[in-house]
């Protein structure tokens, strides 16, 4: 399925396609990491025991591992629209995965994603490019912030 990542032995990372500004990047995603946080703090009055809790903002962030060829395609799409990778418009993505064995321990015959994570209104925040002698491939980490991440 285009637009979804499947993380298991049935599908592979190469099956993922990513839509970015009307352009499509079909291969090159090697990892995804998501994080959601919610600021919380204890409230105190007289004494040293908390009497309640205060709540702050929610924050969503993540990081994609992208092969250098996929990154160059991503950059090409952004530059064609007059932007850099870091100041391009917000984007949306989906990560889906499923258990590959049934209760008996045998592989499932039908692959049905059972877990789905989406990130909305996301923007890249940093670009860190590094290569070293002996590297077999170049993977670029692309951290991002998001307006919302569901499924975590």
Task: Write a brief caption for the model.
The protein is mainly beta and 152 residues long.
Task: Report on this structure.
- This protein has 152 residues and is mainly beta.
- The chain has one domain (5-40, 55-150): Pnp Oxidase, Chain A (Roll), CATH 2.30.110.
- 9% of the residues lie in helices and 46% in strands.
- The protein contains one helix and nine strands, in the order E-E-E-E-E-H-E-E-E-E.
- It has one helix at residues 68-80; strands at residues 5-6, 18-20, 23-25, 29-44, 50-67, 91-97, 115-124, 139-146, 148-150.
- Strands 1, 4, 5, 6, 7, 8 and 9 form a seven-stranded mixed β-sheet that branches.
- The longest helix is centred in the middle third of the chain and has 13 residues, at 68-80.
- It is extended.
- The two termini are 21 Å apart.
- Mean pLDDT is 77; it is low at 1-11.
